[in-house]
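in:
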């Protein structure tokens, strides 16, 4: 059987391509070996504000609206619950930070996200003497459930091949084919696996390893997301996700004691109740120096395309980036220069 698209990779980028094509009733097949764990181990937070500097993330308003729409559509389609709406409470470390927050909340671009009132939680287990700033329109997508459920759907339709993709045996012309699969176009969505892709590895993709821990803390009684030097994210059943770390010199998916100790040291400055570490996970975020995704068409092979470089905000931006790439291919709508891989073609 011939498909319109062959998609390589089944992380968040690959999944959003599948969903975009499914809604357009365009045929596709996926090949993935699940070697890249960034989407599975991600915190899943969607947050339109950069909480270190109190400014809006890139294209956040537009991306947030579209992302929530897509995730809600997937919930109905797959009959799962993945979108958990929770406010983020940013812990203030000083009166100066409180003042910066109040000024930022008066910005017209941020007033729908930042609550100008300084908040205080009635929770003696949290150390936050200067209070909190509340961020609205935020939450968590259960990326593990999302990806596993979508993969099951693809398998049930015989649209998923679980194996490592061998770039050397891809035939590009006159007919694009891979083993016994025929397609008109191929989109690579391999995450950090791009470094082994001979067609696109000239692009300046970087890898940033992130690690998280899951803790059980029955006394914490927290129903909002806390953000200080780390995030604490409620998962239900007294479990909380604590993350995350950033490492630029380790490209394995293996958890480390160094990262766990770093997270727990920061955690103990934020909470005062007992807890137990029940799980630790790691993955490599595909990042780009200019903090913009890698989207577009190969400069020589016009039936090869790329979606990558979603970084730490993949949950927020992946739906929009997949939509823009498919609109570019199917409708000829120009990609903006800031995401187009052509910005690196020189």
């Amino acid at each position: 059987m011939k498909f319109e698209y062959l998609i390589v990779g089944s992380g968040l980028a690959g999944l959003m391509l599948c969903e975009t094509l499914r809604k357009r009733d365009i045929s596709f097949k996926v090949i993935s070996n699940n070697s890249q764990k960034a989407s599975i181990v991600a915190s899943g937070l969607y947050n339109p504000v950069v909480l270190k500097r109190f400014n809006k993330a890139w294209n956040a308003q537009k991306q947030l609206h579209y992302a929530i729409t897509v995730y809600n559509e997937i919930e109905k389609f797959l009959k799962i619950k993945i979108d958990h709406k929770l406010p983020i409470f940013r812990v203030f470390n000083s009166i100066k930070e409180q003042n910066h927050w109040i000024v930022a909340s008066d910005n017209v671009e941020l007033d729908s996200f930042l609550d100008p009132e300084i908040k205080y939680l009635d929770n003696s287990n949290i150390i936050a003497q200067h209070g909190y700033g509340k961020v609205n329109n935020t939450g968590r997508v259960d990326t593990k459930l999302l990806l596993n459920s979508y993969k099951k759907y693809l398998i049930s339709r015989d649209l998923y091949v679980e194996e490592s993709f061998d770039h050397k045996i891809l035939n590009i012309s006159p007919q694009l084919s891979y083993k016994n699969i025929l397609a008109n176009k191929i989109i690579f969505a391999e995450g950090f696996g791009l470094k082994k892709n001979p067609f696109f590895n000239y692009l300046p993709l970087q890898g940033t390893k992130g690690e998280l821990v899951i803790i059980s803390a029955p006394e914490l009684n927290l129903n909002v997301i806390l953000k200080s030097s780390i995030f604490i994210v409620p998962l239900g059943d007294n479990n909380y996700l604590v993350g995350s770390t950033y490492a630029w010199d380790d490209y394995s998916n293996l958890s480390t004691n160094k990262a766990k100790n770093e997270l727990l040291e920061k955690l103990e400055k934020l909470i005062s109740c007992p807890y137990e570490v029940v799980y630790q996970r790691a993955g490599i975020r595909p990042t780009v120096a200019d903090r913009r995704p890698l989207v577009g068409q190969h400069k020589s092979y016009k039936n090869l395309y790329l979606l990558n470089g979603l970084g730490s905000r993949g949950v927020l931006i992946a739906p929009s980036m997949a939509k823009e790439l498919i609109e570019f291919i199917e409708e000829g709508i120009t990609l903006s220069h800031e995401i187009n891989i052509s910005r690196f073609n020189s």
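note: The chain is about 25% helix and 25% strand.
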